[in-house]
TrEMBL record:
A Pfam family reported for this protein in Swiss-Prot or TrEMBL: MatK_N
Domain Maturase MatK N-terminal: 1-182
Keywords for this protein: Mitochondrion, mRNA processing, Plastid, RNA-binding, tRNA processing
Family: Belongs to the intron maturase 2 family. MatK subfamily.
GO molecular function, one term: RNA binding
Source species of the chain: Cynanchum auriculatum
Domain X domain mapped to chain residues: 212-296
Entry protein name: Maturase K
GO biological process assignments: mRNA processing; tRNA processing
Alphabetical list of InterPro entries matching this protein: Domain_X, Maturase_MatK, Maturase_MatK_N
Length: 296
């Protein structure tokens, strides 16, 4: 974080924003001069009670720090993408970042002979989800292993971020599905056979070709678990009635069940296979019918 603050010294907007937060939170807890001057006040500022009060301030510092060491993906995406994205370097408010990238390529040229190939490799996507960093790319296990050590060395050298390589796991989507934002993403191998016939010699040649296809599936087990908690079905997925809604009008009961079905249909409309979605709809519709039958 100290190294990050060095870049903010030459960045006026970030300094003004940091000064604003420091003034607000220092005024709420103690005098700003005492905060900087005495160790006792600094310790008082970081106690558990004050830590809860100043969560927004620490979240601000944490997000700035995360933005710093994740900004490498901006450079890599620009180098690897065929479509030139809109530049938002002004939003990152950095000064010497691209210079460090060029120096990193020179430093690791001996360790990674195919380093430039890594930077220019297409189809790289990065996202942070539920406290985890996910990097998606197309390639072999060897290439992804080089990606992992490339990023670990970069973060350790330039941002003083101790990140052990053992904490980064490589998963192949055709073996291990990825649970992301309610979808299960998996790569399926679709084998196809091509037959060619030579007329002169009268023999056949069979060639097996495997095409990779990315499928997004509806996670049926977590959804049934959620419906079970809300008393739409039991643990086996059998629909049950909701006694709580028997006091409502028939139109209100059908409207609430219909709203849930529409929301699920809209969210999982991008799924490549709708069989699990149809099962969830069946559970909700039959639960609605049983609720109406119990009322009457």
């Amino acid at each position: 974080l100290v190294q990050t603050l060095r870049y903010w010294v030459k960045d006026a907007p970030s300094l003004h924003l940091l000064r604003f937060f420091l003034r607000e939170y220092c005024n709420c807890n103690c005098n700003c001069n005492n905060l900087i001057a005495t160790k006792k006040t600094c310790f008082h500022f970081l106690t558990k009670i004050n830590l809860k009060r100043n969560q927004r301030f620490f979240f601000l510092l944490y997000n700035f720090y995360v933005c710093e060491y994740e900004s490498i993906f901006v450079f890599l995406h620009k180098q690897s993408s065929h479509l030139r994205p809109t530049s938002f370097g002004a939003l990152l408010e950095r000064i010497y970042f691209y210079g460090k990238i060029e120096r990193l390529v020179q430093v690791f040229a001996k360790d990674f002979p195919t380093n430039l190939c890594l930077v220019k490799y297409p189809l790289m996507h990065y996202v942070r989800y539920q406290g985890k960093s996910i990097l998606l790319s197309r390639g072999t296990v060897l290439l992804m292993t080089k990606w992992k050590y490339y990023l670990v060395h970069f973060w350790q050298r330039n941002f003083d971020l101790w990140f052990h390589s053992r904490r980064a796991h490589i998963k192949q989507l055709y073996k291990n599905p990825l649970d992301f934002m309610g979808y299960l993403s998996i790569v399926r191998l679709n084998p196809s056979r091509v037959r060619s016939q030579m007329l002169e010699n009268s023999f056949l040649i069979n060639i097996a070709i495997s095409n990779k296809k990315l499928d997004t599936l509806v996670p049926i087990i977590p959804l049934i678990g959620s419906l079970t908690k809300d008393n739409f079905c039991n643990l086996l997925g059998h629909p049950i009635s909701k006694p709580v809604r028997t006091d409502l009008a028939d139109s209100d009961i059908m409207d609430r069940f219909g709203r849930i079905c529409r929301n699920l249909s809209h969210y999982y409309s991008g799924s490549s296979k709708k069989k699990s979605l149809y099962r969830i709809k069946y559970i909700l519709r039959l639960s609605c019918a049983k609720t109406l039958a119990r009322k009457h």
